[in-house]
Amino acid sequence: MNEQKKIRTMSNNNIKANELRIGNLLLDRGDKLLRLDYWDFMKPAQRMFVEGSEVHPLTEDLEYCKPIILTDEWFKKWGFYKDGEYWSMGIFDYKYCFKYRDWANNWAFYQEYTDSPDPKDDGKKYPISFDIQYVHQLQNLWYSLLHEEIEQ
To answer: For the whole model, what pTM was predicted?
Structure first.
């Protein structure tokens, strides 16, 4: 089964233009994976990717684009590893961790020191952000923190 069929989506559109940036992943009205490539007046224009391969140029109205629900599959795809209840990735002296919160129906983001100047801080998880539900939200958070795309 391809990645697009495993992705859960929302039935209504919650995406606002001010939440998006170049490089964000979305679904079009036919549930095909899109990567936002550039903005054209009031419409975002994208290159379309299906199973990671570009197929043809497409312009899709934002009102028809759908956010992609963040799932375990996305963390696996991006190279995170399972660390107990968390999806984690170590970068420099930090470990970035995401934990799904059933009661809130979203993901929480934590930072953990792995080589702190104060050894008693090593291994402690500090909450940074909550209410992450969609792939584009995680992409934006990651880019804000590290100034690089999350895709491997």
So the answer is: 0.78
